Amino acid sequence: xxxxxxxxxxxxxxxxxxxxxxxxxxxxxxxxxxxxxxxxxxxxxxxxxxxxxxxxxxxxxxxxxxxxxxxxxxxxxxxxxxxxxxxxxxxxxxxxxxxxxxxxxxxxxxxxxxxxxxxxxxxxxxxxxxxxxxxxxxxxxxxxxxxxxxxxxxxxxxxxxxxxxxxxxx
Length: 170
What we know:
This protein is an all-alpha fold and 170 residues long. The chain contains 7 helices and no strands. The protein has helices spanning 2-50, 54-61, 67-82, 88-98, 104-116, 122-144, 147-169. Helix 1 (2-50) packs antiparallel against helix 6 (122-144) and helix 4 packs antiparallel against helix 5. The chain is elongated and about 70 Å long.
C-alpha cells in the first residue's frame, strides 16, 4: 500500500518538475533575447562610427555576454575569420548546428541576423540590423506579455497532469 503512495508522490513530483522546467526554459529564452537585443544595439551604435570588420565587430559586441550566445557569436567570428563558407548566413547556420539551441525564437532571430549581416553597404546594413532589432524586441514583448499567468499555468498544468496520471494508475 505504501509503495502506491510513494509512486504517486514521485509521479506528481516529476510532472510538477516538468512544469517547472518549462517555466525555467521560458525565462532563459527571455533573458537570451534581451541579451541579443543589447548586442544588436551595440552593433548599431558601433558600426556607423568605427567601421570595424565584421568578425571583430561580432567579437567586440558579444564580449560582455555569457553562455550560449557568447559561444554562438565567438563561433560565428571564428567561422568568418577562417573564410571557409561563402557568406555570413552559411557561417551562422554552421555555428547553430554545432551549438544545439533549444530556443526556437532565439534561433529564428539568429538566422535572420545571419541573413542580414555582410550583404549590404553601410546604410543597408544599418537598416537590416534595425529591422532585426525591432523583430527581436517584438518577440521579447510577446514573451513578456502575460508572462506571470502563462508561467503559473505551466506549473499548475504539470501538477494537474501528474495528479490525473496518479488517479488513472491507482
